[in-house]
């Protein structure tokens, strides 16, 4: 064994910042129903309450897709005799889409109002965005303009990520009245849901899959590390 003379050590102070990474980010004003929605479509159980800023830290939920048909066709169609119990297990090919419930964004968030900067940082890490609007609010479409403004002020182009609008609280009569006006004001796909009753969450889950597949196949995943869960 050989020993060499030691050298002086190095000291460094590092400031580490944790940013939540997910495929999809739920972006909306406080009370829009983001946590309720995450509970409705995933295994996550964030707290839900009728006051703003219930969520102060992001929660990530996993939406699982079982691509039975696609994989079963590959096994049964080509080599029927090779169907062992191991293969049966592998047929349940899981696609996992991580969805982050991000604390509410308010006007002036880019100036750090309501701790906005720390919340916007999490949005920055999401590959696609679901803008959650409370359709029972007086003018939900103005909420959307405010959200876009805050995202753009924080990082130009952030509001242009692949996206959809989730029109929440459709179980309420005042929400139903506003759906058509919202659709006429925007070009994005609008998915009406009720996170409370679970109404039409299937459409949201399916569209999420389209966004997810687009991310895997398209520019969204090029040059950046794929997210694995
Ligand atoms: N009627 C109705 N109420 C809903 C629906 N979704 C959420 N709510 C209610 O709206 C309130 C806020 O819901 P949350 O899920 O906590 O909202 P949030 O967007 O996570 O709020 P923050 O964490 O404060 O940003 C709660 O009282 C929910 O029960 C819905 O689809 N219909
Ligand atoms: Mg919440």
UniProtKB/TrEMBL annotation:
The UniProt record lists the keyword Membrane: yes
Matches recorded under InterPro entries: G_OBG (IPR031167), GTP-bd (IPR006073), OBG_GTPase (IPR045086), P-loop_NTPase (IPR027417), Small_GTP-bd (IPR005225)
Domain of life (superkingdom): Eukaryota
Record field: transmembrane: 88-106
Record's keyword terms, sorted: Membrane, Nucleotide-binding, Transmembrane, Transmembrane helix
OBG-type G domain span: 22-213
Pfam families for this protein: MMR_HSR1
Protein name according to UniProt: GTPase of the mitochondrial inner membrane that associates with the large ribosomal subunit
Naturally occurring in which organism (per UniProt): Goodea atripinnis
């Amino acid at each position: 064994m050989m020993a060499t003379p030691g050298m002086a050590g190095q000291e460094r102070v590092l400031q580490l910042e944790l940013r939540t990474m997910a495929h999809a980010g739920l972006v909306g004003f406080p009370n829009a129903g983001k946590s309720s929605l995450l509970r409705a479509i995933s295994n996550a159980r964030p707290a839900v309450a009728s006051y703003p800023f219930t969520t102060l830290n992001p929660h990530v939920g996993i939406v699982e897709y079982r691509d039975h048909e696609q994989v079963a066709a590959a096994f049964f169609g080509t080599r029927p005799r090779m169907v062992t119990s191991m293969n049966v297990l592998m047929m349940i090919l899981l696609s996992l889409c991580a969805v982050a419930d991000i604390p509410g964004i308010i006007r002036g968030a880019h100036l750090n109002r309501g701790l906005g900067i720390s919340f916007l940082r999490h949005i920055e890490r999401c590959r696609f965005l679901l803008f959650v609007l409370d359709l029972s609010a007086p003018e939900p479409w103005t909420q959307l303009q405010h959200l876009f403004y805050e995202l753009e002020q924080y990082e130009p182009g952030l509001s242009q990520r692949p996206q959809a609008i989730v029109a929440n609280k459709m179980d309420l009569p005042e929400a139903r009245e506003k759906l058509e006006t919202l659709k006429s004001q925007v070009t994005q796909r609008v998915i009406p849901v009720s996170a409370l009753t679970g109404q039409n969450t299937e459409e949201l889950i399916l569209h999420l899959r389209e966004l997810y597949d687009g991310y895997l196949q398209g520019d969204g995943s090029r040059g950046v590390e794929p997210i694995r869960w």
